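Contributing new records

If you add data, match the layout below exactly. Sequence lines come first and carry their own label; structure lines follow with theirs. Keep one chain per record. Anything else will be rejected by the validation script.
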Amino acid sequence: MSLADRLAQARRSRDADTQPTTQSLEAQVHTSRRSADPFADLKRTVHTSLLESLGPQLYDAKFTQADLEQKVRHTLHEVLAQEETPLSVADRARIAQEIADDILGYGPLEPFLRDPEITEIMVNGHDQLYVERAGKLHPVAATFVDEAHLRRTIDKIVAQVGRRVDESSPMVDARLSDGSRINAVVPPVAVDGALLTIRKFATDPYEADDLVGFGTMTPDLAEFLRGCVQARLNILVSGGTGAGKTTTLNVLSSFIPSDERIITIEDAAELQLHQEHVLRLEARPPNIEGRGEIRIRDLVRNALRMRPDRIVVGEVRDAAALDMLQAMNTGHDGSICTVHANSPRDVLARIETMVLMAGMELPVRAIREQMASAFDVIVHQARFKDGSRLITQVTEVVGIEPDSLDTVEMRELFAFDFSSGYDDSGRPQGQLHSTEALDTFLKKLGSAGVHLKPTLVPAEAG
């Protein structure tokens, strides 16, 4: 059957479906509400005809992605040209783009994946999408045709990274080819339909000057953190979800000298380091049989056998905390990692809990002594109502307090002044100030051969 015959048959089938039936008026109204897109039937017909026309060519290894795109778009315009439905030039172009996105990419998600200003995409069902711009959530008009369309898109995403998601394995974490991190949840875990979250990968990673421009850190703080990295201090970056920890971690990692051997360890590879000697390790979840899992902890232990100068861990969230403590206390100085916590003091409590998760019956005092010896600086970051992400505290881990046998002593080096309140959008009006303790810390850096600018010496406390 020729392409024209298939189109004619599809049109006859579509026309037959639109003839009056015994369907009740209430059902017709319900159907019209669901069909918000007036071209939904047309797109479905053209989409089916296009797939039948190209067939196996879509999966032919001989075609490059560029060749495949050109062939799909050429065939698509041929199919649309034979459609009898009157279309304006703008509607024809839009339909062609949407169908091409569905075949070559991820359908309704494609425009948002291409938009550099969007940092996160949230699909709360086939008919509800949100995106994050400048740290704030915005609903968008785009939708999937139905639940099946959303599930096909999710299956396409996870299949490209060798994963699967179904009733037996209803949750999946993976990443797209460009590094964007995805999480998908399907029924029965997701009660109202499949859910999808995509945290986009920055093709052009932020640098220290960018964070200074955003107000995330001050120029003095950027210079201070550069000095801490060069002095090979062990640094923890803490904060809540979406606070910008990974971005800050990437900036801190960029301060590492280019002549050092760096090993990065992540759940999903996001760090983008420009040094020449970088080895990237990525954790792996278990397969459908529950085997083959490679945990962050396994990678940390393996990294110690790879002669690292620096170990950078995307996030410590489980028993890997014990192995990180061991690494930092056995000559692997200059390590950097992130951890979820609400404050620098909470960081130590969380690390302590995660160490206990390792199953080693260590006394609390021993764990705290290890932490006091391993960690040098905690950089805490927070996200505010207006979407801004600011470093609010930089704290030195001094050691065990002299008057206590098991309390870790900490000193604030920089602290954000919230006394000025917030503006109408929810952004804090204060500034990050250094404290008197910074003067002593700068002397410590000086003894490590790192001499910072005199402007960093605080003029006043708080």
